[in-house]
UniProtKB/TrEMBL annotation:
PANTHER family to which the protein is assigned, alphabetical: IRON(III) DICITRATE-BINDING PROTEIN (PTHR30535:SF7), VITAMIN B12-BINDING PROTEIN (PTHR30535)
Fe/B12 periplasmic-binding domain mapped to chain residues: 62-341
Lineage: superkingdom: Bacteria
Gene3D superfamilies reported for this sequence: Nitrogenase molybdenum iron protein domain
Any matching Pfam family: Peripla_BP_2
Similarity section: Belongs to the bacterial solute-binding protein 8 family.
Record flagged with keyword Nucleus: no
Name of the molecule in the record: ABC transporter substrate-binding protein
Signal peptide: 1-24
Keywords: Signal
Amino acid sequence: MPRPVRPAALAVAFTVLALTGCGAEVTAREGTDDAARAGGGRYPVTVENCGEKKTFERAPRRVVTNDVGITEIMFALGLEDHMAGYVMPDDKGDLTSVPWKDGYTKTEWLSKEQINKELVLDARADLVFAGWNYGFNEGDGFTPAELGRVGIDSYVLSESCRNGQGKARGVMSPLDALYTDLRNLGTVFDVEDRAEGLITSFRKEVAEAQAKAAKGADRPRVFLYDDGQDKPFTSGAFAGPHDIITKAGGDHIMKDLEDSWTTVGWETVVARDPEVIVINNYGDTTAEQKRKFLMSYKPLANVSAVRNDRIVVLDYVDLVESPRNPAAIRSLAAELRDLSS
């Protein structure tokens, strides 16, 4: 996610047509070659991904995904048959209680370690679906450009799109990022109806949660705590927790931070005095250990959430871009209502 994802023959050709702002624009054009005829005349198709227009001559057949949220986007779209496998650590919580849980039994878990070029080459991948700091990073030489040099295409998670301010990430609201990826992948894999059905269902679920949520001055101030003791790792306006908190009836105290997942200072948290803290549950440090730290850390002693013991736990996959985001909004909205009653 954020920080923590510690995590062939060329089967898909792409063409960079233009650089524009990242958005959900999707177009398709008819072709007359064999690949287009085999796809019923619908290919090639073009989608815009993080400001880059990418053209696919046919649906990728051996996709490798990195991390749980990205993997479940593919599963929710019913695309297991197009996957070579997925990569993610085994610290991502319950994988058996979601509607698309069968995807985990149908698809190979390629590695619990960090994704790398050798792994995707061994898997004969034709597409890697990952994100900046969700697998892609220059430090390890695992980038879309590097994969392109060995004939493997990439699709970048929209939550992780870089916005041109250094390595800061985020160019649209978190839920819009989810809907953009569903719609784009629906086009690439010829499952538009399923994608639109998911988007409609998710919008309805979010709207129903919002209708019952606190509004205006009644909204509690909420801080997302991911990890870190010297400085907290948290979420800004472009990471999943922003929409999850605000749609659930909370006032996200880091809403002015134009980044996705990043580090802030404890003094900022203290000054903004959150009334509720949401813990991101994943990794070697348990949610209970994180809670004990927050409750015992002296600089936070007078923060309202700590003083009143108003701490909520959500799983990692609820908070990163994933098809679990709408359910997380419903869950958090109920928690905030209970805390305020």
